[in-house]
Give the backbone structure.
Amino acid sequence: MFGLLSQLAHAELESPRPEESAAFFTEVLGLYETERDGGSIYLRAWGDPFHHSLVISEGAQPRIAHVGWRTAGAEALEGAAAAIEATGLGEGWQEPVLGHGRAFRFRSPGGNLHEVFWDADRYVAPEAQRSTLPNRPQRFLPVGVGARQIDHITFVTPKIMDDVAFWRDTLGDRFMEFAVDENDEVVFAEVTSNEQAHDIGLVGVAAAPGGQTHHLAYWLDLPSEVHRAADILRESGNPVEWGPARHGHGENTFLYVREPGGHRIELFSGGYRNYQPDWEPRKWLANSGGVEMFVNNPMPESMFEAFPAGERR
Amino acid sequence: MFGLLSQLAHAELESPRPEESAAFFTEVLGLYETERDGGSIYLRAWGDPFHHSLVISEGAQPRIAHVGWRTAGAEALEGAAAAIEATGLGEGWQEPVLGHGRAFRFRSPGGNLHEVFWDADRYVAPEAQRSTLPNRPQRFLPVGVGARQIDHITFVTPKIMDDVAFWRDTLGDRFMEFAVDENDEVVFAEVTSNEQAHDIGLVGVAAAPGGQTHHLAYWLDLPSEVHRAADILRESGNPVEWGPARHGHGENTFLYVREPGGHRIELFSGGYRNYQPDWEPRKWLANSGGVEMFVNNPMPESMFEAFPAGERR
Amino acid sequence: MFGLLSQLAHAELESPRPEESAAFFTEVLGLYETERDGGSIYLRAWGDPFHHSLVISEGAQPRIAHVGWRTAGAEALEGAAAAIEATGLGEGWQEPVLGHGRAFRFRSPGGNLHEVFWDADRYVAPEAQRSTLPNRPQRFLPVGVGARQIDHITFVTPKIMDDVAFWRDTLGDRFMEFAVDENDEVVFAEVTSNEQAHDIGLVGVAAAPGGQTHHLAYWLDLPSEVHRAADILRESGNPVEWGPARHGHGENTFLYVREPGGHRIELFSGGYRNYQPDWEPRKWLANSGGVEMFVNNPMPESMFEAFPAGERR
Amino acid sequence: MFGLLSQLAHAELESPRPEESAAFFTEVLGLYETERDGGSIYLRAWGDPFHHSLVISEGAQPRIAHVGWRTAGAEALEGAAAAIEATGLGEGWQEPVLGHGRAFRFRSPGGNLHEVFWDADRYVAPEAQRSTLPNRPQRFLPVGVGARQIDHITFVTPKIMDDVAFWRDTLGDRFMEFAVDENDEVVFAEVTSNEQAHDIGLVGVAAAPGGQTHHLAYWLDLPSEVHRAADILRESGNPVEWGPARHGHGENTFLYVREPGGHRIELFSGGYRNYQPDWEPRKWLANSGGVEMFVNNPMPESMFEAFPAGERR
């Protein structure tokens, strides 16, 4: 928590096959359904503290309809709303909805829809799901992959450095790492509100034409669980798109898979813990060894696809 | 496989609460029910190649009713039966039963009931459970702990060195490690038909008065999964009795838990791979630092309990 | 980073055997010596960003002479100094020293000596030690345990809730977890400036009579490396005092060992990531199952010893 | 141990840069030098029980000059020699050499030079290197990767099924897995004397033209250590050629790297434990998803190179 935001709280995923998407998240990744309301399915991982970290709604194409951020406090919410309003990107306040209080909506420079809020409904487990540990929102009795909590989201943007500046200067995130192409143009960037390299990834449109989002990531407790997840995904008929491998940036272990609606999901663990407020963003050369820890595991072409296809706001 | 046996194939567990025992093995440890027959429940772990590795039958007290060993081949079965017969410990041939062919039954010197057989029914997964890997008997889509396969069994015996001699000299196992008390009496010994330190543990009656068996062990792929299992067991209301920790003998990571019928089950992973036919058994001093890798994790008193209580054949 | 502090930056360890202590940290734990100056030895782990995270000085008894905290920024340093001054615990400004700029010194309510500073010298690796990754201060070519970075420190205090209040209200840390005895007296507490359960542990004097500090902890990348470290420590003649096991509070995997000067060092990994500014501290019952994840791994009596023996400021 | 062999005991590696090769094995992989004799450098991993598992000799090109197998006993040595002699592949007895007793030399059908022996000198650690565990040949005080023991070797052969038949029918290995091309020609096969999928890999000459060996593998205790090794290799200037990833056959975690002399070395861990003497070899389709667990980590072209280049016996 280095600024006005405390954490990525939830994302709304539109899927052409919402029931199949929900089944994938619950039966394979091990999330739990909290509630259904207004045609949407509300889910959370076992370690997510709030009512939901994922909302699945029906949509013609796979896309992330909006992303919710919890602020660092009640004052920080007012401060964030005012600061965003001042940039001209604000879309106004929204009344409380299922799971959280009033929220201020806005578009990031690249066009993605977000909301910030402070009041949030904590998940209260029914008796049978209560943990024997007082610090857990729910028992750990995992199914399948057993993802622990929402981690980060990666957007596609035509204005990558505008997005970096927005998150850093308006909301107080840190700008941690970036990659440039042979023309020294930034093609990938990471900003964060926490100790890891990113809770927001930013991919340029050249790398992911047409789309608005690239992937949504869930956290597993151990890198070895990402490898275990790859096995489970293979065996469950959900082939891994890329990985498991390890990013150089952030040092995280990862894999990517498509959920049944078509959107890319990342499973993610490990990585450095960096507490330096004055960290200088680190530069990588995208086409010279790349940003990966293990250079002989090249990214497949399919990773250039973003969502929704062929459309921007 | 260093002698006439190829592997521990199955154990029959008597439980006063067979349905609860079966639920623990399937819902918490992640075994699968193959079949029910004659009042018994047949189970196997996802990686077990045969029809079953565990039979749960109803009984007044928790105990292992018999243990099944697969021989190294058809000739090895005849050889084993003849060799056992010659020791006077044989109890004769038994007709084929559910899961395997004709078997020769015997009592080990300490009094435990065993059978050796060669013909075994391989598990054939139904279409929906087939693996995407040609070398697996079943898909890996784990529930809970997700144990992989049966590993070893530890007996209680008043004649510990007679048992060692029997398994080594009659059946060709290797004698790997042992621990002595202050009088240089052997109180614990390990023999094996494979590359690990043991598929049979032998505990003296002083250490486990009255009983015939001490624990039955299942294998997990990684030591870290034993730690994950400890968490799952706690959260599922099945408290770990000892561990997770690491034995010095064999270098295995372990934990012990009681199944609902009362018998002790070990979850087990890691350990050395030893291929030396002429390995000299290694001696440990049980009361001087002990046989554990991590000396400040003492064995609780409850570990001296064996099954069934207060009775020997 | 939830308040005025960004991170635990260093600790000064007094040792009756400074050369042996330094050899333990470099040859067994895998730290690196940065410099020697004024009779002190400056060390850092491979992932520590600054000039040092540990200073070893000669002293009659093992003790932590002072602890250094880096603030969240230059303004936060002024704010922290003013806020501390207002509590009457300030001891004034100190001129820049080897490794960091001017610092404000103070005693926490329990009597431990600290300093806060902002300007810090970053470690610059010599050519041969430079990493192939732009985000690392140094190559990863580990020796022995290969600890990554300083993690937390646990103090002994007669005024445990005063200390909690000080760190929370004066410096903005979060109060995360605590344990009470049968009289509902707090005997252990954890406060943090980051996403984990603590970077400060607080132990009551009843639990650790006479001393001022209990242990200093270094971070390893994986819980499995704590288990590997236990093996290395045993083999290097530095017996583990307690662990490896897993705390319930924070969910961290740990072990404790004494460095040659006598002070307790913890090796530490894993644990939850908690981003809730309004987290309610969780209460544990110290004598009813305890604060451990695995209940059958009791804390040895030696863990009640604190440093220096029989003395408080 | 399923036949006349108990284990792969050693390999002789010829290197154009023997000192650099030795430094890589000791300083990066963490092997130990036992002795130098006759221009050769004798090395072993910390867990290898015998005098050496690797001999480095000077040679014009990187190649494996010979491979040593320990038999299942003294009689098995005579039996193996007789059986090999009967195939016409024998090259006669060799007098005892440094590290082991008399050996029978032979060429496998594909032309590689081997020897079988029984008497072997066990490594006896000097006092300072003795383990605190009675079952280890040496203390575990690792440097760098810290490889544990020799694991397997992969040959190139124009007669892949002849080699399979030789190891299976003459020496009693099991034939475990194989891959075929679109013409149903076997292009890869695995045979084993132990519980894992292979201690011998066989690659067809189409896949590795000209050479006689493909790689020599060392075992690490955990799959996570293979990932840690990849990081160490990168940082030490020894780029990983392929991996870390996981083979489908055998389920092993792997990486490949070239030692300074140019030969490919594999680091290897995990994998199934299979005890079935009547295991049916499993067939994979090399060009239809391949033999890898994770399909989006394709093998780089460089992996088709074998040693020595452009030459067969």
About this structure: Residues 149-304 of chain A form a domain with the 2,3-Dihydroxybiphenyl 1,2-Dioxygenase; domain 1 fold (CATH 3.10.180.10). The helical segments of chain A are 18-28, 74-87, 160-170, 223-235.
